[in-house]
């Protein structure tokens, strides 16, 4: 059942690049030479196993029974991951839901153990991704913390699990829209919003705000070296929102004309702080200095039971950085892709659980992991 | 620290809009203290004492009282007093005001006397928060909730008799005005308050010093009476509200009314209050006989038999004498240090204190001499002693084990308090034990009940202390990385376990042990660590700002964590936390969840413990340094040796409990989620 024989897309062995970055690159279509190479690899991988990616409903039964090859969470996960608008965690959640369906376990205990294994496999697929492991953990919590496990009839219990799993998947899918509804209230006419990084949730919020005929202006940081800002500003420009691009070092320079800062998050940690693309911390610091609110849009499946005490307290997610010119020999390059913003620099978090202050995150987490 | 506080200013308005969106006129803290479920008639009077602009009469009233500067002692005493019953806090402030005219008689009292009475009070409610918590475990919490019921009731009833309550109202008004005349004396006035009420009972102050047997019973009346007075006053307020509604008079007219009241005050006041209080107390008995019964049990449990009461009186006298030495003004509400005389006294009385179980006695003496110290150790020892006491316990005929054993435990506890004020963790443990006793099944046999209790105590020690420590160690070790420099302060067993565990795991780190006079607890810890082969640096608190440069993590223990995230810990902890916050070094507090307390503490004055002032005047091994010899002869010299301080949550990065690593803002969540059933069972 263990998919160890499958091609592990995590290329940390060959490039020293974290899977976290790789996923980002795929989702955000960052065009780097690395990404091209990976895309190439992905194509070949897909070509190798094209028949295992049909509809989810079909996969479970047919593959497990028919092809003689065990159902693989990773395959399922990769299938969902290909969907452009689906977050990694949601893909994992969908994959786990499918896993329950296709499981051949005959007892509840067995099913639970298998599910645990599958979730561990998914997590080990990319250890640097916070939302992936958080999503898996939350799924396990949500699904298994039910009275269903005491049902006498195994099939009824399994159905119950599937139901819960799908419900959770549904909630996660809808999360972004919920957040957009909540977040757009904070965009007021004539406001100037500073955005850092390419966050699909933030984009959704701004889209909704724009479609509600709110007049606002967006400042996008360039987001070196991924140039996420370029893509983000492109999306906004198509919506007709006035956008201005800044280089990353111009944040403090422009902060006095900014009314609020909007960022997404890779993970929301127990302290209420966020882990996000490199540069978020410094923007939050500048905003805090100038008393500008910093709003974070993040789905609740990104809530992770982590508690970093400082920047170095997290496993770094390594990414390649191109400087355009050869780096002088003997010079080190900081290649971490993300940083940690402590809660005291955040104003509010827009989540599908509601608009929260940073301290409520821990509240929610404690409730979940009771 | 600013950086931590400023963002809240940004957040606050939005949060507040969610929370208090109706009318923000009264300060939120005060309006919160008004019980939400009281009727309108009750809310208004309570509000009046807190927020001026509600009725005209009270505007003038308050403008008077706002002139006088509230003495700090009042605040602290009040704070302590109200801790037990949060809901009653606002009204009890007012009760002080009302009573103060009586206090004119008491102002001349010698200092020693009111201190002793204070001490008596401390016995029941002040001594330590936890003690008040468990002493009236059965009713103190109920009181908080049910008090409002009583209040509404009395308010209504009083309103039904407008004549008498109107008179009472005037009396109250005059009472509130009186202290305005002398801002300076109010401190002593307020302090003297308990006695004054006792005075109504007809006892003289001198008597109080000697015959504490009387004082004991007086104290009881004090409490009842105080509450009665509160009720009368509440009734008065309700009436005043009615009057205010009827007349809706302007400032001037109400001022006039006030003047009239002032003139009439002195004649009416004593009898009126007396009358009202007796009525009120009767009423209370009618309304809640059950509660009163419980109260009697717990109080009688604190009153020892006659002989011992007299002995206690002597002990108090000794304390009074001790206290005549210069105690620090701000901390006079705390039980004053009394080590020397008490140890001798207790040792000499070993064969007379036959109602105290020997093992409890032993533990008490250990507390007294300091041979058992540290929150966990003290709590464990106490529980083990109780376990032995339970083992040797046999129910007297015609008594139920639940009742009798509870009173027994209470008497043990008051003995332990006499030895040393309880820590909050011990208070929680006692609460747990009493809860278990109260829930004993009446149908099971005595031996069965006893074995149940024994296993419960075992379970508490195991789950809440031993296993919890292991879990905490497991969590905290993940935060130690190779190359770290850890700073520790005080002597926390769990921190020690963390360090040893991390060392066993082969992590490479260095430790800075910070110590401070007079206890120098760090030395013992340092010894243990060095024996295990850890590399340590030893320094004193004075050097903290220098040493902090190289530190990467600060690990601290806690005596208690309060629900606003305040850390109540060994004195000096706040200093360490602040310096490390300034240096941006993360501060980790390691604390078992059974030490959490639902109260809120803002400073280290309200609740603290005083140590021997002599130990800070002398430096061991330096006899030449005797400038402070005979310091107590100097009227204007006071020495303060505090045991604990309160660290604001702003300086704390993380709290490590057995429930995980949580930010200090999540302490109330732990209460909510694990609260009643799990934390205290």
Task: Offer a few descriptive terms.
heterodimer, A: 370 residues, alpha/beta, Four Helix Bundle (Hemerythrin (Met), subunit A), Rossmann fold, 2 domains, 7-stranded mixed sheet, 3-stranded antiparallel sheet, 11% strand, globular, disordered N terminus, B: 681 residues, 4-stranded mixed sheet, 28 helices, 11 strands, 63% helix, cytoplasm (chain A), Translation initiation factor eIF2B subunit alpha (chain A), NagB/RpiA_transferase-like (chain A)
Helix-strand blueprint:
The complex is a heterodimer of chains A (370) and B (681).
Chain A: H1 19-28, H2 33-48, H3 56-67, H4 73-81, H5 88-102, H6 108-125, H7 130-144, H8 154-183, E1 191-196, H9 200-211, E2 216-221, H10 228-239, E3 243-246, H11 251-254, E4 260-263, E5 267-268, E6 274-277, H12 280-289, E7 294-297, E8 338-341, E9 348-351, E10 354-356, H13 358-368
Parallel strand pairs in A: 1-2, 1-4, 2-3, 4-7, 7-9
Antiparallel strand pairs in A: 5-6, 6-8, 9-10
Helix pairs in contact in A: 3-5, 4-5, 5-6, 5-7, 5-8, 6-7, 7-8, 8-9, 9-10
Chain B: H1 2-19, H2 28-33, H3 40-50, H4 56-67, H5 72-84, H6 89-106, H7 111-126, H8 129-135, H9 140-160, H10 162-181, H11 186-200, H12 205-210, H13 212-247, H14 251-287, H15 289-302, H16 306-323, H17 339-348, H18 358-369, H19 375-391, H20 401-419, H21 424-438, H22 446-477, E1 484-489, H23 493-504, E2 509-515, H24 522-531, E3 535-540, H25 544-547, E4 553-557, E5 560-562, E6 567-570, H26 573-582, E7 587-590, E8 596-597, H27 613-617, E9 644-647, E10 654-657, E11 660-662, H28 667-679
Parallel strand pairs in B: 1-2, 1-4, 2-3, 4-7, 5-8, 7-10
Antiparallel strand pairs in B: 5-6, 6-9, 10-11
Helix pairs in contact in B: 3-6, 3-13, 4-10, 4-14, 5-6, 6-10, 6-11, 6-13, 7-8, 7-11, 7-16, 8-21, 9-13, 10-13, 10-14, 11-13, 13-14, 15-20, 18-19, 18-20, 19-21, 19-22, 20-21, 21-22, 22-23
